[in-house]
Design brief:
Layout lengths: L1 H8 L9 H33 L2 H27 L14 H29 L8 H28 L2 H29 L5 H28 L5 H12 L6 E9 L5 E10 L4 H19 L1 E10 L4 H17 L4 E9 L4 E9 L7 H15 L4 E8 L6
Parallel strand pairs: 2-3, 5-6
Antiparallel strand pairs: 1-2, 4-5
Amino acid sequence: MTDFLVRHLIRDHENVQDPAVRERYGVLSGGVGIFLNLMLSLGKFFAGVLTGSIAVTADAFNNLSDAGSSVVTLVGFKLAGQKADDGHPFGHGRIEYLAGLLVSLLILMVGVELGKSSIEKILHPEEVAFSVVTVIILSCSILVKLWMCFFNRRLGKRIGSAAMQATATDSLSDVVATSAVLAGTLIGHFARVSIDGWIGVVVAVFILRAGWEAARDTLNPLLGTAPEPELVQAIQQLVLSHEEVVGMHDLVIHDYGPGRRMCSFHAEVQEGADIMAAHDAIDHIEREIQETFGIETTIHMDPIATGDSEVARLRDQVRELVRNIDPDMSIHDFRVTRGPLHSNLIFDVVVPHRCKLSDGEIKTRITDAVRQVVPGCYVVLQLDRSYVGMN
């Protein structure tokens, strides 16, 4: 069914990096969610009034909030699909993350209100009437919500959407919640035990958990997370597959919304290489990353000495000394300037954020260690912070 809807309702559906195509996916997800959630809400509200069940009525309002969440998702994708302008040169893609965050906040609000109503029902229990119609409505709701979970999850995976994944998570929590309501209804009728309020509390807990997980998944890209290790490794392999490049460092990837990423890094080339040939290779790598990963790239070219065996030996020694201080530290831009009385060892050190040493302690330790190996040298080092994990 999902593939059928995508093929017939989304033009150019395979071009998921195109903001316009992503917008169509969002409209499809939002439209389906609004319609189905409104139908489920009306059915459950009718059943709740018929039986007097707080759990069933609360589940109806849960579906009503889901319809509102679908509206937010639809509007969010429409806004995120706007073209870049003078005030927003990187586009409006992060609005999609904001939409997902708002959906998660709505889920949390529903969970809190449901929890309050359920506790009130526990403190002041009321008899709940049994109805076959209610059982049928709740059973149908479970099946519909299962389909909506798989539907949004597949769409979310296709376009890498945190907002759709949040909606899928919400649908799965609804399956658990409605199943609990159905179980409570059957137990209450056949066992003659009033557990309506307790079932409502269980439903509220599942809803709150789903809301928290959805909020976490949408907050991370807004705050700025490290890129996926698989992406970093793939970029590294692509760059180093070009013989003109002997190393790379300082890779930074900025996320301006799904399909709107930019990256920059330093590519190391031999100092004696033909500058025009090296520049042409760098340009080619930038285009290749854009075509392969859809990431606009800027590369800084660093010349390094590769033919001097003494410099290579010193570089290996210093690299090992730095790793002895912290195995995740690395060096780059290593060079040596020699004078009549002493030599300058100049290099940059990449420090992971988790390192607990201060900048002063790191510099002192490295300088002391290097001077024990190369007496009388001057150590000139610059500390960089690691933004991604690179081999």
